[in-house]
Amino acid sequence: MIRRLSTFLATVCLVATGLIASAPAPARAAAVACTGYSSSTTTCTNTQTVIGGTSYSVDWYQPKATSNGLMLVQHGFSRNCGHLRGTSKAIAEKGLTVLCINADMTAGNPALAATVGDWLTARAITPPNGKPLPTAYVVGGHSAGGHFASAVGARLAANGYPQLKGAVLFDAVAAEGFSANLQAISAGGARRVLQVAARPSVTNLANNSFGALNDLDSGFVGIQLVWSSYFLGAPIGGSCHTDVEGEDTDLVGTAGALCSPSSTQTQRLRDFGSTWARDLATGTTTAAYHCVDDQVLASCGSKVRDLADRSLPLAAPIR
Predict the structure, then answer these.
(1) Radius of gyration over alpha carbons of the chain, in Å?
(2) Do 168 and 205 touch, CB atoms closer than 8 A?
(3) Can you list the domains of the chain with their CATH numbers?
(4) What is the pLDDT of residues 29-64, one digit of tens each?
(5) Which of 19, 27, 49, 177 has a CA between 20 and 30 Å from the CA of residue 143?
(6) Where does the chain show beta strands of DSSP type E?
(7) Contact of 253 with 198, CB cutoff 8 Å
């Protein structure tokens, strides 16, 4: 009796195993258009993408025309990709495909950054909408996402990816390894590393990214937005850690930053950031947005001088 029962149970287990093995794999979530997104020249699509064995929600911004590069634009700590929608759109409208991964960004999540760096090196990724994956890569991000981007870029450099073009950061908050990451991306000045920064604050740890940027000793590394404007000689408007989020921020972002984005500063940030991203991806330099010597304002292009070379400056080169 016991032998017959054992045989029966074994048969049931084999049948069950066969049914499980023959069952279809779970369907991958379909790509969906981003809610409320509007652009005549770009699209926004959300997909579920497996990275290192884990599924992540990923936002893609794609030019309808041929893309000239891929840029990682990573959100900050306790934020998500939707908070960078307007900035991602501005970059995509300059011709780049933009990728943002919804993920934990505590301390820049170096473990995930290494995985993403390997994933991008292997080109083990398929963009939505039948678009090919660009070969030129630019890394970028905001706050802790800026540190994440630096780690991804360093991994790409370590892996010898030949089409890493540089980095564009948005008020990055540095964590352990940030300086070494930027050095790896820069490769002695062969690749540009640029940042749009806000005034020092608690949330950007008093511009703790500046030391690593200046240690690159590669000349111009970006600008710090200071004031929106002046009225009767008095500065107004300031700059905020979440200017990069602009109209896409929320109460959590405002409470965390202890300030609200300025529409003027958001527009300036997107103008510089998107132009630099296009320059890096295409190997060009739009002179108006750069300085030959960051110590000499007369050597800067018109866009920089318009903000910095005045008796009451609105911005300054990062020094």
Answers:
(1) 23
(2) no
(3) 28-317 (3.40.50.1820)
(4) 679 999 999 999 999 999 999 999 999 999 999 999
(5) 49
(6) 32-33, 42-51, 54-63, 70-74, 97-101, 137-142, 164-170, 192-197, 222-225, 229-231, 234-236, 315-317
(7) no
